[in-house]
Amino acid sequence: MQNITIKFDKLNHMGQDLLLISFPYDFDAKEYLKEFNGIRWSKELKSFYTLFSKTNTNALFQYLRKRKYYVDYEALKNGHNQKSSTSRIVRKKIGISKKPNENALKKIHSFKEWMRQRRYSENTINTYESMLLMFFGFHHTKGLQEIVKTDLENFNTNYILANGYSFTYQNQAINALKLFYKHQGRDITIADSLERPKKQSKLPEVLSIDEVKNILSSISNLKHQTLLSILYACGLRIGECLNIKTKNLNLERGFTHIKSGKGRKDRYVPIPNQMCILLNKYIDAYKPVDYLFEGANGEKYSPVSARQILKRSLSTVGIKKSITLHTLRHSHATHLLESGTDIRYIQELLGHNSPKTTMIYTHVSSTSLDRIKNPFDDFTI
Description:
Layout: E1 5-13, E2 16-22, H1 27-34, E3 40-42, E4 47-51, H2 54-65, E5 70-72, H3 74-77, E6 83-84, H4 88-94, H5 102-117, H6 122-138, H7 149-161, H8 167-184, H9 189-192, H10 209-217, H11 222-234, H12 238-242, E7 249-250, E8 255-258, E9 267-270, H13 273-286, H14 303-317, H15 325-338, H16 343-350, H17 355-358, H18 361-364, H19 366-370
Helix pairs in contact: 5-6, 6-8, 11-13, 11-15
Protein backbone atom coordinates (compact mmCIF):
# COMPACT_ATOMS: atom_id res chain seq x y z
CA MET A 1 0.00 0.00 0.00
CA GLN A 2 2.68 2.49 0.99
CA ASN A 3 4.70 1.93 -2.23
CA ILE A 4 1.92 2.97 -4.60
CA THR A 5 2.28 6.32 -6.36
CA ILE A 6 -0.96 8.13 -7.14
CA LYS A 7 -0.67 10.80 -9.81
CA PHE A 8 -2.72 14.00 -9.96
CA ASP A 9 -3.30 15.72 -13.28
CA LYS A 10 -5.83 18.15 -14.68
CA LEU A 11 -8.19 17.87 -17.63
CA ASN A 12 -9.99 20.83 -19.14
CA HIS A 13 -13.29 19.85 -20.68
CA MET A 14 -15.57 22.48 -22.20
CA GLY A 15 -14.11 25.06 -19.83
CA GLN A 16 -14.55 22.79 -16.79
CA ASP A 17 -11.43 21.72 -14.90
CA LEU A 18 -11.32 18.11 -13.73
CA LEU A 19 -8.80 16.50 -11.41
CA LEU A 20 -7.56 13.18 -12.84
CA ILE A 21 -6.33 10.51 -10.42
CA SER A 22 -4.31 7.62 -11.86
CA PHE A 23 -2.16 4.80 -10.45
CA PRO A 24 -1.11 1.22 -11.27
CA TYR A 25 -4.00 -1.12 -10.51
CA ASP A 26 -4.29 -1.95 -6.83
CA PHE A 27 -7.50 -3.22 -5.24
CA ASP A 28 -6.94 -1.53 -1.85
CA ALA A 29 -6.14 1.84 -3.43
CA LYS A 30 -9.13 1.62 -5.78
CA GLU A 31 -11.60 0.78 -3.00
CA TYR A 32 -10.19 3.44 -0.69
CA LEU A 33 -10.34 6.12 -3.40
CA LYS A 34 -13.96 5.26 -4.26
CA GLU A 35 -14.97 6.15 -0.71
CA PHE A 36 -13.96 9.80 -1.27
CA ASN A 37 -17.04 11.85 -2.18
CA GLY A 38 -17.34 12.97 -5.79
CA ILE A 39 -14.89 10.43 -7.27
CA ARG A 40 -15.99 8.89 -10.57
CA TRP A 41 -14.45 6.54 -13.15
CA SER A 42 -14.19 7.27 -16.89
CA LYS A 43 -13.79 4.28 -19.20
CA GLU A 44 -12.76 6.61 -22.00
CA LEU A 45 -9.97 8.27 -20.00
CA LYS A 46 -9.15 5.07 -18.06
CA SER A 47 -8.83 7.23 -14.98
CA PHE A 48 -10.69 8.33 -11.88
CA TYR A 49 -11.71 11.98 -11.80
CA THR A 50 -13.52 14.62 -9.77
CA LEU A 51 -14.19 18.34 -10.07
CA PHE A 52 -10.96 20.32 -9.79
CA SER A 53 -10.71 22.95 -7.07
CA LYS A 54 -8.06 23.81 -4.51
CA THR A 55 -10.35 22.65 -1.73
CA ASN A 56 -11.13 19.35 -3.44
CA THR A 57 -7.50 18.70 -4.38
CA ASN A 58 -6.18 19.45 -0.88
CA ALA A 59 -8.88 17.35 0.76
CA LEU A 60 -8.13 14.38 -1.53
CA PHE A 61 -4.39 14.79 -0.96
CA GLN A 62 -4.85 14.64 2.83
CA TYR A 63 -7.26 11.71 2.48
CA LEU A 64 -4.71 9.67 0.50
CA ARG A 65 -1.85 10.57 2.80
CA LYS A 66 -3.78 9.10 5.75
CA ARG A 67 -3.13 5.71 4.17
CA LYS A 68 0.52 6.60 3.46
CA TYR A 69 0.07 6.70 -0.32
CA TYR A 70 2.63 8.80 -2.17
CA VAL A 71 0.90 11.51 -4.22
CA ASP A 72 2.68 12.85 -7.32
CA TYR A 73 1.29 16.31 -8.10
CA GLU A 74 4.18 17.57 -10.23
CA ALA A 75 1.89 17.93 -13.25
CA LEU A 76 -0.26 20.38 -11.28
CA LYS A 77 2.67 22.23 -9.70
CA ASN A 78 4.52 22.68 -12.97
CA GLY A 79 1.46 23.67 -14.95
CA HIS A 80 1.49 20.58 -17.17
CA ASN A 81 -2.24 20.37 -16.88
CA GLN A 82 -3.58 21.75 -20.12
CA LYS A 83 -5.05 18.52 -21.41
CA SER A 84 -8.38 18.83 -23.13
CA SER A 85 -11.00 16.27 -24.01
CA THR A 86 -13.43 15.93 -26.86
CA SER A 87 -14.71 12.60 -25.59
CA ARG A 88 -18.44 12.17 -26.09
CA ILE A 89 -18.64 9.99 -23.00
CA VAL A 90 -16.99 12.56 -20.73
CA ARG A 91 -19.00 15.44 -22.25
CA LYS A 92 -22.24 13.53 -21.71
CA LYS A 93 -21.48 12.59 -18.14
CA ILE A 94 -20.10 15.87 -16.84
CA GLY A 95 -22.57 18.31 -18.36
CA ILE A 96 -21.02 21.27 -16.49
CA SER A 97 -19.10 23.90 -18.40
CA LYS A 98 -17.80 26.23 -15.67
CA LYS A 99 -16.86 26.30 -12.02
CA PRO A 100 -19.11 28.29 -9.65
CA ASN A 101 -18.58 32.05 -9.56
CA GLU A 102 -16.55 33.60 -6.74
CA ASN A 103 -19.57 34.69 -4.73
CA ALA A 104 -21.04 31.18 -4.80
CA LEU A 105 -17.69 29.70 -3.74
CA LYS A 106 -17.54 32.07 -0.76
CA LYS A 107 -21.09 31.16 0.27
CA ILE A 108 -20.30 27.43 -0.03
CA HIS A 109 -17.21 27.90 2.15
CA SER A 110 -19.27 29.79 4.74
CA PHE A 111 -21.88 27.02 4.62
CA LYS A 112 -19.20 24.38 5.25
CA GLU A 113 -17.97 26.25 8.32
CA TRP A 114 -21.52 26.52 9.60
CA MET A 115 -22.02 22.75 9.19
CA ARG A 116 -18.79 22.09 11.10
CA GLN A 117 -19.99 24.30 13.95
CA ARG A 118 -23.25 22.36 13.99
CA ARG A 119 -21.19 19.15 14.26
CA TYR A 120 -22.23 17.61 10.95
CA SER A 121 -20.03 14.66 10.01
CA GLU A 122 -17.12 15.29 7.64
CA ASN A 123 -18.66 12.81 5.23
CA THR A 124 -21.88 14.86 5.07
CA ILE A 125 -19.95 18.13 4.76
CA ASN A 126 -17.86 16.84 1.87
CA THR A 127 -20.90 15.32 0.13
CA TYR A 128 -22.94 18.53 0.38
CA GLU A 129 -20.01 20.63 -0.79
CA SER A 130 -19.60 18.39 -3.84
CA MET A 131 -23.32 18.69 -4.66
CA LEU A 132 -23.29 22.48 -4.34
CA LEU A 133 -20.19 22.80 -6.52
CA MET A 134 -22.01 20.76 -9.16
CA PHE A 135 -25.19 22.82 -8.92
CA PHE A 136 -23.62 26.27 -8.97
CA GLY A 137 -21.16 25.16 -11.66
CA PHE A 138 -24.18 24.14 -13.73
CA HIS A 139 -25.63 27.64 -13.19
CA HIS A 140 -22.31 29.52 -13.17
CA THR A 141 -23.74 32.58 -14.98
CA LYS A 142 -26.27 33.29 -12.24
CA GLY A 143 -25.87 34.84 -8.83
CA LEU A 144 -27.29 33.09 -5.77
CA GLN A 145 -30.23 35.50 -5.55
CA GLU A 146 -31.05 34.96 -9.22
CA ILE A 147 -31.66 31.23 -8.86
CA VAL A 148 -35.35 30.44 -9.30
CA LYS A 149 -37.53 27.34 -9.26
CA THR A 150 -37.00 26.56 -12.96
CA ASP A 151 -33.20 26.53 -12.44
CA LEU A 152 -33.51 23.72 -9.90
CA GLU A 153 -35.88 21.80 -12.16
CA ASN A 154 -33.44 22.28 -15.04
CA PHE A 155 -30.57 20.91 -12.92
CA ASN A 156 -32.68 17.93 -11.89
CA THR A 157 -33.77 17.11 -15.45
CA ASN A 158 -30.68 17.99 -17.48
CA TYR A 159 -27.96 16.95 -15.07
CA ILE A 160 -29.12 14.42 -12.46
CA LEU A 161 -31.68 12.51 -14.52
CA ALA A 162 -29.91 12.97 -17.89
CA ASN A 163 -26.75 11.40 -16.47
CA GLY A 164 -28.67 8.52 -14.90
CA TYR A 165 -27.49 9.25 -11.38
CA SER A 166 -28.91 7.13 -8.59
CA PHE A 167 -31.86 7.61 -6.27
CA THR A 168 -29.39 8.28 -3.43
CA TYR A 169 -27.45 10.87 -5.45
CA GLN A 170 -30.65 12.75 -6.28
CA ASN A 171 -31.72 12.78 -2.64
CA GLN A 172 -28.31 14.02 -1.52
CA ALA A 173 -28.53 16.90 -4.00
CA ILE A 174 -31.97 17.85 -2.68
CA ASN A 175 -30.81 17.68 0.94
CA ALA A 176 -27.74 19.81 0.19
CA LEU A 177 -29.72 22.52 -1.61
CA LYS A 178 -32.46 22.67 1.03
CA LEU A 179 -29.99 23.01 3.89
CA PHE A 180 -27.87 25.52 1.96
CA TYR A 181 -30.82 27.82 1.26
CA LYS A 182 -32.02 27.48 4.83
CA HIS A 183 -28.57 28.63 5.98
CA GLN A 184 -28.76 31.57 3.57
CA GLY A 185 -32.03 32.62 5.19
CA ARG A 186 -33.78 32.54 1.85
CA ASP A 187 -37.24 31.13 1.23
CA ILE A 188 -36.48 27.45 0.63
CA THR A 189 -39.67 26.75 -1.32
CA ILE A 190 -37.53 26.89 -4.46
CA ALA A 191 -35.55 23.92 -3.16
CA ASP A 192 -38.82 22.08 -2.54
CA SER A 193 -39.38 22.09 -6.29
CA LEU A 194 -36.68 19.42 -6.65
CA GLU A 195 -38.95 16.42 -6.37
CA ARG A 196 -37.61 13.39 -4.58
CA PRO A 197 -37.58 10.22 -6.65
CA LYS A 198 -40.02 7.48 -5.79
CA LYS A 199 -38.33 5.33 -3.20
CA GLN A 200 -37.21 1.93 -4.39
CA SER A 201 -38.80 -1.07 -2.69
CA LYS A 202 -35.67 -3.16 -2.65
CA LEU A 203 -35.40 -5.93 -0.07
CA PRO A 204 -32.03 -6.58 1.56
CA GLU A 205 -30.03 -9.72 0.84
CA VAL A 206 -30.00 -12.02 3.86
CA LEU A 207 -27.79 -14.97 4.77
CA SER A 208 -29.05 -18.10 6.48
CA ILE A 209 -27.73 -18.98 9.93
CA ASP A 210 -25.70 -21.84 8.42
CA GLU A 211 -24.17 -19.50 5.84
CA VAL A 212 -23.12 -17.06 8.58
CA LYS A 213 -21.58 -19.92 10.57
CA ASN A 214 -19.67 -21.14 7.51
CA ILE A 215 -18.32 -17.64 6.78
CA LEU A 216 -17.12 -17.03 10.34
CA SER A 217 -15.65 -20.50 10.84
CA SER A 218 -13.71 -20.23 7.56
CA ILE A 219 -11.60 -17.35 8.94
CA SER A 220 -8.39 -18.51 10.65
CA ASN A 221 -7.13 -15.05 11.66
CA LEU A 222 -8.50 -14.26 15.15
CA LYS A 223 -8.72 -10.52 14.58
CA HIS A 224 -10.57 -10.92 11.27
CA GLN A 225 -12.92 -13.51 12.73
CA THR A 226 -13.72 -11.28 15.73
CA LEU A 227 -14.42 -8.28 13.51
CA LEU A 228 -16.95 -10.05 11.29
CA SER A 229 -18.42 -11.90 14.28
CA ILE A 230 -19.28 -8.74 16.21
CA LEU A 231 -20.87 -7.19 13.12
CA TYR A 232 -23.30 -10.11 13.03
CA ALA A 233 -23.62 -10.82 16.75
CA CYS A 234 -24.51 -7.22 17.63
CA GLY A 235 -26.06 -6.10 14.33
CA LEU A 236 -23.64 -3.19 13.95
CA ARG A 237 -22.94 -0.90 11.03
CA ILE A 238 -19.30 -1.09 9.96
CA GLY A 239 -18.67 2.53 10.98
CA GLU A 240 -20.09 1.87 14.45
CA CYS A 241 -17.97 -1.24 14.83
CA LEU A 242 -14.70 0.43 13.83
CA ASN A 243 -15.41 3.38 16.14
CA ILE A 244 -15.69 1.15 19.24
CA LYS A 245 -12.98 1.93 21.76
CA THR A 246 -11.81 -0.49 24.41
CA LYS A 247 -13.21 1.82 27.11
CA ASN A 248 -16.68 1.49 25.49
CA LEU A 249 -16.76 -2.26 26.25
CA ASN A 250 -18.15 -3.81 29.42
CA LEU A 251 -17.64 -7.52 28.92
CA GLU A 252 -18.50 -8.36 32.53
CA ARG A 253 -22.02 -7.01 32.07
CA GLY A 254 -22.09 -7.96 28.39
CA PHE A 255 -22.71 -4.73 26.48
CA THR A 256 -20.94 -2.06 24.42
CA HIS A 257 -21.66 1.64 24.27
CA ILE A 258 -22.12 2.74 20.64
CA LYS A 259 -21.30 6.44 20.51
CA SER A 260 -22.42 8.79 17.74
CA GLY A 261 -24.00 6.15 15.56
CA LYS A 262 -26.04 7.11 12.53
CA GLY A 263 -27.78 10.40 13.25
CA ARG A 264 -25.24 10.99 16.07
CA LYS A 265 -27.25 8.83 18.43
CA ASP A 266 -25.76 6.88 21.32
CA ARG A 267 -27.11 3.50 22.36
CA TYR A 268 -26.16 0.46 24.42
CA VAL A 269 -25.97 -2.84 22.58
CA PRO A 270 -25.91 -6.20 24.39
CA ILE A 271 -23.12 -8.63 23.55
CA PRO A 272 -24.03 -12.34 23.64
CA ASN A 273 -22.00 -14.64 25.90
CA GLN A 274 -20.15 -16.43 23.07
CA MET A 275 -19.18 -13.07 21.60
CA CYS A 276 -17.84 -11.92 24.99
CA ILE A 277 -15.68 -15.05 25.14
CA LEU A 278 -14.33 -14.37 21.64
CA LEU A 279 -13.66 -10.70 22.47
CA ASN A 280 -11.74 -11.62 25.62
CA LYS A 281 -9.63 -14.06 23.62
CA TYR A 282 -8.99 -11.41 20.96
CA ILE A 283 -8.11 -8.67 23.48
CA ASP A 284 -5.69 -10.98 25.30
CA ALA A 285 -3.95 -11.81 22.02
CA TYR A 286 -3.84 -8.36 20.35
CA LYS A 287 -4.00 -6.00 23.35
CA PRO A 288 -5.66 -3.06 21.56
CA VAL A 289 -4.94 0.27 23.30
CA ASP A 290 -7.48 2.77 22.00
CA TYR A 291 -9.75 1.43 19.28
CA LEU A 292 -10.96 -2.13 19.65
CA PHE A 293 -9.85 -2.86 16.08
CA GLU A 294 -6.60 -1.09 15.30
CA GLY A 295 -4.80 -0.83 12.00
CA ALA A 296 -1.24 0.24 11.31
CA ASN A 297 0.37 2.46 13.96
CA GLY A 298 -2.60 2.09 16.27
CA GLU A 299 -4.95 3.93 13.92
CA LYS A 300 -8.57 2.94 13.46
CA TYR A 301 -9.03 -0.14 11.28
CA SER A 302 -10.03 0.56 7.69
CA PRO A 303 -13.47 -0.38 6.28
CA VAL A 304 -11.69 -1.29 3.04
CA SER A 305 -9.67 -3.93 4.90
CA ALA A 306 -12.86 -5.21 6.54
CA ARG A 307 -14.51 -5.61 3.14
CA GLN A 308 -11.53 -7.57 1.91
CA ILE A 309 -11.84 -9.98 4.83
CA LEU A 310 -15.46 -10.66 3.91
CA LYS A 311 -14.64 -10.99 0.22
CA ARG A 312 -11.97 -13.62 0.89
CA SER A 313 -14.21 -15.58 3.25
CA LEU A 314 -17.07 -15.59 0.73
CA SER A 315 -14.69 -16.96 -1.88
CA THR A 316 -13.48 -19.63 0.55
CA VAL A 317 -16.97 -20.94 1.35
CA GLY A 318 -18.22 -20.52 -2.23
CA ILE A 319 -21.08 -18.08 -1.60
CA LYS A 320 -21.98 -16.31 -4.84
CA LYS A 321 -24.63 -13.92 -3.51
CA SER A 322 -24.08 -10.16 -3.59
CA ILE A 323 -22.98 -9.84 0.03
CA THR A 324 -21.62 -6.80 1.87
CA LEU A 325 -20.64 -6.13 5.46
CA HIS A 326 -24.08 -4.60 5.97
CA THR A 327 -25.62 -7.96 5.01
CA LEU A 328 -24.41 -9.29 8.36
CA ARG A 329 -26.50 -6.61 10.11
CA HIS A 330 -29.53 -7.44 7.95
CA SER A 331 -29.07 -11.13 8.72
CA HIS A 332 -28.79 -10.46 12.46
CA ALA A 333 -32.10 -8.54 12.47
CA THR A 334 -33.88 -11.15 10.35
CA HIS A 335 -32.70 -14.03 12.52
CA LEU A 336 -33.84 -12.19 15.67
CA LEU A 337 -37.28 -11.71 14.14
CA GLU A 338 -37.48 -15.36 13.12
CA SER A 339 -36.60 -16.44 16.66
CA GLY A 340 -39.59 -14.49 17.99
CA THR A 341 -37.93 -11.23 19.14
CA ASP A 342 -40.35 -8.31 19.32
CA ILE A 343 -39.96 -5.89 16.40
CA ARG A 344 -39.79 -2.91 18.80
CA TYR A 345 -36.83 -4.46 20.60
CA ILE A 346 -35.06 -5.05 17.29
CA GLN A 347 -35.67 -1.39 16.39
CA GLU A 348 -33.95 -0.29 19.61
CA LEU A 349 -31.03 -2.68 19.13
CA LEU A 350 -30.39 -1.48 15.58
CA GLY A 351 -30.77 2.20 16.44
CA HIS A 352 -33.58 2.87 13.96
CA ASN A 353 -35.51 6.12 14.32
CA SER A 354 -38.71 4.70 12.93
CA PRO A 355 -40.31 1.25 13.27
CA LYS A 356 -41.03 1.50 9.53
CA THR A 357 -37.31 1.01 8.86
CA THR A 358 -37.24 -2.13 10.99
CA MET A 359 -40.44 -3.51 9.44
CA ILE A 360 -38.56 -4.30 6.22
CA TYR A 361 -37.26 -7.45 7.92
CA THR A 362 -40.78 -8.84 8.11
CA HIS A 363 -40.63 -9.03 4.31
CA VAL A 364 -37.44 -11.12 4.22
CA SER A 365 -38.18 -13.35 7.20
CA SER A 366 -39.15 -16.87 6.17
CA THR A 367 -40.97 -17.70 9.43
CA SER A 368 -44.23 -15.89 8.67
CA LEU A 369 -44.26 -17.09 5.09
CA ASP A 370 -43.80 -20.71 6.18
CA ARG A 371 -46.96 -20.48 8.30
CA ILE A 372 -49.16 -19.55 5.37
CA LYS A 373 -51.32 -22.41 4.16
CA ASN A 374 -51.54 -22.37 0.40
CA PRO A 375 -54.92 -23.64 -0.91
CA PHE A 376 -53.11 -25.51 -3.66
CA ASP A 377 -51.90 -27.97 -1.02
CA ASP A 378 -55.50 -29.29 -0.76
CA PHE A 379 -55.69 -30.04 -4.47
CA THR A 380 -55.50 -33.60 -5.77
CA ILE A 381 -53.88 -33.62 -9.17
